[in-house]
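Hi, can you check this record?
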Amino acid sequence: MDTILVTGGAGFIGSCFVRQWLAAEQTRIVVLDKLTYAGNLENLASVTDDPNLVFRQGDIGDTSLVQQLLTMYAIRSVVNLAAESHVGRSIDQPAAFVRTNVVGTFQLLEACLEYWKEMGEQARRRFRFVQVSTDEVFGELGAEGKFFEASPYDPSSPYAASKAAADHFVRAYHRTYGLPTIVTHSTNNYGPYQFPEKLIPLMIQRALEGRFLPIYGDGSHVRDWLFVDDHVDGLRLALQKGKPGQSYLFGGQCELSNVEVVQAICRIVERLSSKASRARCRSRIQFVDDRPAHDRRYAAEIEKAGRDLGWTPRHRFEFALETTVQWYLDHQEWAERVLQNVYDGRRLGLPRQ
């Protein structure tokens, strides 16, 4: 059976990829996930019984396990979504990001290279290794302009540096060994099932609980917001149509400052919520000390993805954000379970003393 391997498939973006793939394709998908705090089998609950889904718990750095999966299921492509991804946590514990994002990706590449070399000629031509990266590897933009695929790397945080290092290894394995690799970069994702430590789900949770809403610095930091389903559309197209050695940028074409995003969340919460304690959400916005090396602005030029892959974002921010808020409102038990004994909402990424 035609089979792909998705690493990190129980995480936020990974589980969306798996659900979307199983709904649209007739091929098998093998998920490898370490099930750290942000990876959760509940994210795959709706597809657990699908006969085309195989789940294995494990680490991308476990070369023998990866080789076993590649061979056992005759994997024809790999989508690497396994990563530590929170900037604040990378400031507090950078070593974990080096282990998973750099060393883990290197070990995954090693296993895939050895497997690919033993394939028949036709299978080798079809094989793809898709590295899912971030626009943060490019650093900070000024007031104007956007990132392109050829933008120079200039990471600011340990997270961005670890993803940049992984990207360089992926490209090097294509240039040196011929492994058919593709690198994708996306802007900030949001949507259902996102662990409540990132800006949008954290602010939704705090707003629903009637707590204060902390925003770094003056709140003017700008991000380009991309609904997770649109990102996954792009990843599937990159897998199907992308050319080895190329990279593709996915962005929502929706630049908003952090304070604008939080205000939008408050307007929706105030409208959808029935509890009096959730009223006047905007009055609970508080500005707190900025985090170290906090890039001012990101934005992506998506012309290449449109031209080469036929991709464009489908969801408007206002509608998709309301869908997201409603999902968290309807899934408070999910949020309580994934947060229990894992994250209490405290601030991460404080400057080291």
In short: The chain has a mean pLDDT of 95.
